[in-house]
Every structure is written in structure tokens, then in C-alpha cells.
Amino acid sequence: MTVASGPTPRLLTAGQLFLDLVFADLTAAPRLGEEHWTPAFGWGPGGIANYAIAAARLGVDTVLCADALVGESLAHQS
Question: Is 75 helix (H, G, I), strand (E, B) or coil?
Fold first, then answer.
């Protein structure tokens, strides 16, 4: 478990943490069984992280509580 230091949080966000995968610049929507290559790909936190990020951007001291393997990976990336 990682414990953050800093100001006492005013908001606790708790819930499922997801990893959002974004494929962009597709020439068309793929049909069942088709494969398409895309030149643009991105990923980022999703789920409860969206609320935590929005609150933090509004200046609210926020902590995130989530139980997910992806969450551990994201926590070490940022």
C-alpha cells in the first residue's frame, strides 16, 4: 500500500479503476472478425480516476482508493 504525504484530503474517491485504451485515426469502424492497424494509440486511467482527476483539477485535495492491478501500474507511471 502506498501512503501519500501532503495536505489532509477533503475528498476520498473509491471505486473501480480501469485502464482506458484509445485507438484513433481508424479509416472505418471494424466489423466482427476484421483487424485494422491504427497509427494513433493512447491509454490512461478511467473509472473512478475520472472523478479524482476532475476534483484535483478543480483544486480539491483528493485521494483515490481503488483495488486493481492496473491501478498499481498507473500509480508507478505517474
Answer: helix
Residue 48: φ, ψ to 5°: -65, -20
Which alpha helices (DSSP H) does the chain contain, by range? 48-57, 69-77
Cβ contacts of 11 within 8 Å, gap of 6 or more: 52, 55, 60, 61, 62, 63
Query: Which cell numbers in the block locate residue 71?
Result: 491501478
Max Cα separation, the chain? 51
pLDDT (tens digit per residue) in 50-78: 999 999 999 999 988 887 665 555 556 55
Q: Residue 71 in contact with residue 18, Cβ under 8 Å?
A: no
Q: Are 13 and 55 in contact (CB under 8 A)?
A: yes
* Residue 11: CB atoms within 10 Å: 14
Q: Give the phi and the psi of residue 72 in degrees, each rounded to 5.
A: -60, -40
